[in-house]
């Protein structure tokens, strides 16, 4: 049952992974390919339309240049300036124009079918490139008025989709521009030429849009002047489609025409103002995409089926050795150390089975020795911890009880002198202060006390020293009230003050001398600072003291009077702080000869979590 269940789960997970992978790859490939192909086809058609518009502009600009020789001709200018009543001059100028002006243009540009000049004076010269006998008789005034309204006043040429000849508007392009005579500063005539639009079929008919695809050329008013299709092409270009195309510069749009979705790609000519439109059914564009979709589905289905078969076989081959190994582990749980018997395998499962058999063979032999070794190790560790604790306690108590006997002897001698000489309250004060100091110092427990307790101990010390030195001794305490309940090690502040009195002011404190006690928190540390402006010490002596502090050595020699004489020395204080809080705390020294000394006591700010 377990084999079957695990096999099904493996097969199920393999199937999910394979299906998701193939689906993601197929979907991405199809989406990307179809999008790229759609964009590429649309870009190709748009590029062809742009090229068609460009070639058309070049073609039409070539005709526009054909008018330059005419508008500057003297005979043409005289024709425009002549009187409308002078028939002889009209005959002469029209003859010169037809003989000398129009023929070179027809020769250079045989595509021109019809060429004429109409003046404001009502005179007109018309010539047909192929059929001189077919020249129509036109109403010059009416034609001039119509052409004048259609052409710009600045003399630039314009394109019209109509003919001067009645019944010839289909497939005709008229290129017209205003011209002026020699004596006029404003245009007083119109020059026009007609070209058969079918002459442009070689340019417009190059695009192959496939089955159902059509190409259109529309003028500025939305009239279709050319189409590559039949009557069906006319129905495709509905009025709504024309309206939407005329309101866009260039680009593409999708339109549903007679139930068929079509893509219209539009390009606007910069010179002629005509719009070149290609219309292609979306189904025609997406035919290659449908082929890709079908191929993707068939290949994906075949690949999925093959992958699922392989996944099932892999799952079944992995489950059997796992089941055998599981049964062996069940026996091991019961205390039966049997090896797993199975065909030799060289894969990871074979390595696992060999390792399991090796483990089983060694585990029964090693378990007793491991138990005994662990018990012995724990016992030894407990003994070492107890021994270290006792050693620290003994060292701490010994350090704390190292009270300088000279101080006690001198104090008792001073009390005796006061008692003999006079009956004074000083004796009471000294005795009370001495009693406080003795009671405070002989307590040997390891409990920390507060900054306020240490300051009270310093006050008792100063009270005694005031009578010994027969002068007032003041210590400036600038500790913030919220720091007075910070924890300290017992008997650490008074030795620092005593060290200052003995070494910073060996001749006593004079006016201007000061001893300042400060405290502050700095990140996770609590700093107590004792500063004086006494003698200070040399760099050599300061470096020697710093090295002693770094070595964590206790001051125990009489020659160490710089640090030790007169009470519990600096090294004693430094070591006791480290015994309580660890090696990262203790004393730091800064001093300059003749400028004074600063001793900083570093303690943890959160002592309940920092104490060792």
Automatic annotation (TrEMBL):
Compartment annotation:
Cell membrane
What reaction is this protein's catalytic activity? ATP + protein L-histidine = ADP + protein N-phospho-L-histidine
For the HAMP domain, which residue ranges apply? 316-368
Coiled-coil segments: 375-402
SMART domains, A to Z = HAMP (SM00304)
The UniProt entry lists membrane topology as: Multi-pass membrane protein
Q: From the UniProt record, which GO molecular function terms apply?
A: protein histidine kinase activity
- E.C. code: 2.7.13.3
Q: Keyword set for this entry?
A: ATP-binding, Cell membrane, Coiled coil, Kinase, Membrane, Nucleotide-binding, Phosphoprotein, Transferase, Transmembrane, Transmembrane helix, Two-component regulatory system
Give the Histidine kinase domain ranges.
Answer: 420-607
Q: Per its UniProt record, what Gene3D superfamilies does this chain match?
A: 6.10.340.10, Histidine kinase-like ATPase, C-terminal domain (3.30.565.10), PAS domain (3.30.450.20)
The family database entries (InterPro entries) matched by this protein are listed as: Bact_2-comp_sensor_kinase (IPR050640), dCache_1 (IPR033479), HAMP_dom (IPR003660), HATPase_C_sf (IPR036890), HATPase_dom (IPR003594), His_kinase_dom (IPR005467), Sig_transdc_His_kin-like_C (IPR004358), Sig_transdc_His_kin_internal (IPR010559)
- Residue ranges spanning the membrane: these are 295-316
Principal place of residence: membrane
Q: What is this protein called?
A: histidine kinase
Could you read off the lineage of the organism from its UniProt record?
A: Bacteria, Bacillati, Bacillota, Bacilli, Bacillales
